[in-house]
Amino acid sequence: MRTLLVLAALLTSAPSMAAPIEIPVAAEDATLTPGGTATLAEALSEARRRRTRDPRAAIVVALSSGTHRLAAPVRLGSRDGGSAGAPLVIRGPADGSARLVGSRQLAPVPLDPALAARLPAAARGHVRAYRLPAAVRAPARIQAPIVLDGPPTPPAFEVFDGEGAMHPARWPAEGFAEAEGGDGPAFTVANLPPGALRDEPDLWAEGYWRWGWLFEALPVLRTVPKGTGVRLTLDRMPYEGIRPGAPVRLVHLLAGLDRPGTWWRDAKAGILLAWPRGREETVEVSVAETLLSVEGASHLRVESVRLAMARGDLVSVRGGRDVVIADSVLSLTGGRGAVFTGAHDSGLQRCDIAGTGAEGVVLSGGDRRTLTPGGLFLRDSRLTGYARREATQHPAVALDGVGAEVTGNYIHDSPAYAVHIRGNDHRVTGNEIANLLAGATDTGAIYSGRDWTARGGVIADNFLHDIRGGPDTEVKGVYLDDMASGFTVTGNLFLRVDQPVFLGGGRDNRVEGNVFVASSPAIHVDSRGQTWARDAVTDPQSELRAAYAAMPVESPVWRARYPRLSGLLYDRPAIATGNVITDNLILLGDPPRFTDGGEAAEQTLARNRGPVTSPADLAVLARSSVDPADFAGLAAGSGVRLPTIPFDRMRRSATAGAPFGR
User: Fold this and answer.
1) Does position 619 have pLDDT exceeding 90, yes or no?
2) Mean model confidence pLDDT for the chain
3) H or E stretch covering 49
4) Counting Cβ atoms within 10 Å, is residue 65 exposed (0-12), middle (13-18) or buried (19+)?
5) What is the rounded distance in angstroms from the CA atom of residue 212 to the CA atom of residue 243?
6) What span, in angstroms and rounded, lies between the C-alpha atoms of 95 and 99?
7) Is there a contact between 115 and 187 (Cβ–Cβ < 8 Å)?
8) Residues in a beta bridge with 439
9) How many alpha carbons fall within 13 Å on the CB side of residue 58?
10) CB contact at 8 A, 374 and 319
11) Residue 8 has pLDDT above 60, yes or no
């Protein structure tokens, strides 16, 4: 009897060796598989029942090829997920043909003659009318204000045609006009089309009102003709006011519906007017705020799925452990692609992320007070076209907390920065970062700032190229702004990058073993805490001092990890000192620059080589297209090791199937 009991116990505790249980889910344009379920939510309910009967079961929710539409988020909680050896898997076909979308298709309806008469001449015969679904008809405004540090609020809806996201009709259609006569929240623009602002109760104005690093969108309360222009009053003052000549544009006015890819809503009638691109007249509007909302679930996989067209974030993960999105496409959403908050050992790998309205990915986890890492990650993925709606302050990847990893990714072609770093001990390694920040100013591809305590970050073995400002803008590569300290910037290759490493008043940073090609000045060091940013250091209520006071810098774990931090306020805190700049190679560029109180004598400089400007092959290289083979012998004979850039891992092409469209 005892032998039988022991054997039964062993069998009960042994891992399940049975084949995974597969629960098929039919798309709306496919026939339901026998034994399958009609919706993803139903499939997850069935998975929960089966997991209750057998906690060790390996379960796969198999999405068929085609479109799976959601009107509301699919929610997974602590009762969902699986185990370390048998996670719950939501999987589409390997070719990426399963689409999970939060949109509704609209069919054309007759166009009201009164609206047709108001259309710009170029639009007549091209614009179609569509009745909006009740789910998105009610909001009085198409969006919430876009302001500095504003909450992540999704738009009321977005509109999509066969080529992707459309945008609200605007004036001017391309570029910006100049705001003149800023008086409080009022300004004037000239040369508007006659009658352009008649009957526009949901008119918006957006632009770079005061600073080139901040894009804001605000509703217009009043419009009054003034001379040859119009005076407009916003519902609030933009951040620090309106400067003369600020680049702005008006948004959501019928007079701007003059080209393909634009739309306008008649809120009273619940009618959408749109000019679709291509031959198809069918358009879609986003209705679901989020597609997947994961709260406290662990051991979950989402694989080979195309997620698109939510109003807000496509995927939200809060808490839990071991939640991974892999081999998937996340695109065309009003908010962010994927947000991980408070989860552990979770993230994305081998994904394509594009066309998000704000950030591509947010990774916030770990415990800063104990410096416990969260283990969040973004690996071997491609991110492009992010910050589509919110052009500044919304990077491809936003890091917060402790110990996140961003490695092996290709981040390119967006107006916003690639990585924003808050918190401690994050690693940004082996990425290619290119063609960013067009039109922006006073910003950087990799950014951190205004926190002495956000230390331990490593930026290593990355390839940054073709990041340059224009005649009236200036940008940086690695921008350690406003006293950012304690970073290591090592083994990176910079090609055609303005101000590739910029130390803005910080201390205890290490800049070692980097190669700068046609990138000037290679390294900038200033001591702004002694000059124009003195108040940030001396005022106990400043953002910098508040961040310092919020962390237990005197605790044993912090003193052991960052020994130079605990006594900082008594160690000449305004002075940029203790930065180590060694073993760097400069080709076709200017040497390190010390300005605004920054002094070379306060830093450690050793074994830096260059600038080298004479070899003809380097001049050719500075103009050539990017080819990893060009760099094979670049540092030969210099005594400096060329950074090891993992080109073979980078995703220079998209996941199977059409990359980011519908």
Assistant:
1) no
2) 89
3) helix 40-53
4) middle
5) 11
6) 11
7) no
8) none
9) 10
10) no
11) no
Residue with structure tokens 């994904």?
351
- 305, with CB counted inside 10 A (0-12, 13-18, 19+), is buried
CA–CA distance, 340 with 403 (Å, rounded to integer): 13
- Band of pLDDT at residue 651, cut at 50, 70 and 90: low
Query: Of all helices (H) and strands (E), which one includes residue 41?
Result: helix 40-53
Q: How many angstroms separate the CA atoms of 470 and 408, rounded?
A: 29
In the predicted model, is pLDDT for residue 322 greater than 90? yes
Beta carbons within 10 angstroms of residue 258's beta carbon? 20
Chain centroid offset of residue 585 CA: 31
Radius of gyration of the chain (CA): 27
Peptide bond into 244 cis (omega under 30): no
State which amino acid sits at residue 143.
Q
Question: Which of 488, 492, 489 shows the shortest CA–CA distance to 517?
Answer: 492
Q: What is the predicted pLDDT for the residue at 481?
A: 96
Q: Which two tokens stand for residue 219?
A: 């509703």
The reported pLDDT for the residue numbered 227 is 76
pLDDT score of 447: 97
The string of pLDDT tens digits covering residues 294-307 is: 999 999 999 999 99
CA distance 157 to 178: 29
Contact (CB, 8 A) for 161 and 332: no
Which of the given ranges, 22-36, 588-602, 632-646, has the highest pLDDT on average? 588-602
Distance CA(512)–CA(492), nearest Å, equals 9
- How many C-beta atoms surround the C-beta of residue 223 within 10 A? 17
Tell me if residue 10 falls in helix, strand or coil.
helix
Tokens of 436: 């960013």
Q: In whole angstroms, give the CA distance from residue 454 to residue 425.
A: 8
Give me the torsion for CA of 369, 370, 372, 374, rounded to 10°: -20
Q: How confident is the model at residue 642 (pLDDT cuts 50, 70, 90)?
A: low
Beta bridge partners of 349: 326, 379
Q: List pLDDT tens digits, range 463-472.
A: 999 999 888 8
Q: Is the dihedral of CA 176, 181, 185, 191 positive or negative?
A: negative
pLDDT band at 207 (very low <50, low <70, confident <90, very high): very high
Q: Answer for the pair 83, 54: CB distance below 8 angstroms, yes or no.
A: no
Closest CA to 82 of 45, 62, 105, 56: 56
Q: How far apart are CA 390 and CA 483, in angstroms?
A: 26
Average pLDDT over residues 73-79: 94
pLDDT at 480: 98
| pLDDT at res. 51 | 87
* Half-sphere CA count of 189, side-chain side, radius 13 A: 24
Q: What Cα–Cα distance (Å) separates residue 364 from each residue in 210, 342, 344, 346, 367?
A: 30, 6, 10, 11, 10
In 10 A of CB 280, how many CB atoms?
A: 11
d(C-alpha 353, C-alpha 339), whole Å: 12
CA atoms of 323 and 341, how far apart (whole Å): 11
Q: Could you tell me the sign of the dihedral formed by the alpha carbons of 370, 371, 375, 376, in that order?
A: positive
Q: Tokens representing 251?
A: 């948004």
Q: Which residues contact 450 (CB under 8 A, 6 or more apart)?
A: 481, 482, 483, 484, 536, 543, 544, 547
Assign 536 to helix, strand or coil.
Answer: helix
404 phi, psi to nearest 5 deg: -85, 160
